[in-house]
Amino acid sequence: WLVVDRKVYDVSRFCRQHPGGSRVIAHYAGQDATDAFAAFHNDKSLVKKYLRSLLIGELAPDQPSFESNKKKSLLEDFRELRSTVEQMGLLKPNYFFFFLILLHLLVLDAASWLVVWYFGISLVPFLAGMAFFTVAQIQMGWFQHDLGHCSVFRKPRWNRLLQIVVINVLKGLPASWWNHLHNQHHAKPNCFRKDPDLNMHPLLFSLGKTLSMEVSMGFLPLPHYNIFSFFSLERRSRSSCLTTTSISISSVS
Question: Is the overall model pTM greater than 0.85, yes or no?
Fold first, then answer.
């Protein structure tokens, strides 16, 4: 079960057919997913048609309509900020800008090969071609990032098609792999065991100070956090980002 706009939905079966993947929606099991729902779905009226069959009730009056680890006042400020940004039209894409982005990527990519083909593989042409190719590849990564967020075209299908061209064809990486990981990152940013960007080997946590203390908190005294975070990491199975809370509902359909 999860909550969207104080409505409780049973997505136990739907999560398997969820277009964004089962993990993204499962990360909010037992939690309020209102803000994530608003961020991930452009056409909310269309998505809500599919939610009607999953509706099982509403939150009880004493239940908060936000995640337990979030501050209500700060959350309301961000919701107001998002509404203001949308009303100002700042989220509307500039197609000419993105056309120039794509054009200069293709020019840089072609130039990297033409320099080596025409001038040979001596040191200077090789370094020049490598510079062109490196800049093109880095910029392609950011361009496909915008496409993956469906930020360029109004219809998600066109974003996905161009993203496949950029990341699959020009960069040689699968778009499905990137979307699967990046969607989880934005669903639960910086939440250990839910954000794939933090799925590093436990040894890496022992090298830092702030992150290792955060992960190890509650198991060891302060002076030994950094030393023993490697051992305590596996012991910590729950955190503020991992807790599945219970939901009280006042009505059931």
Answer: no
